[in-house]
Amino acid sequence: MVERLIRISPDGKEIIFLYDDQVPWADLGKMQCSRASDVVFDEEKQAWKIVFPNGKVVGYFTKRESAIHHEIFLLEGALAEDL
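The structure assignment produced for this chain is given below.
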């Protein structure tokens, strides 16, 4: 199992983390999920890219798996900065 960062709000009403299917999170109660970024294929560049909601593109990758690993690295880093 991969270790993941989890941030809990001071009032305990919000838990922020990167979702994965390894833990049955839904068993803990009602969830609200939203995307923090997206990995999409850029046809012009013929590469995978990470796109954030503000439109910022981070990196181009020949393999989707590499883009996803980098996406997780970036998001975990952002989550750790907020702790």
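Interim note for the steering committee: The helical segments are 64-81. The chain has one domain: 6-19+33-81.
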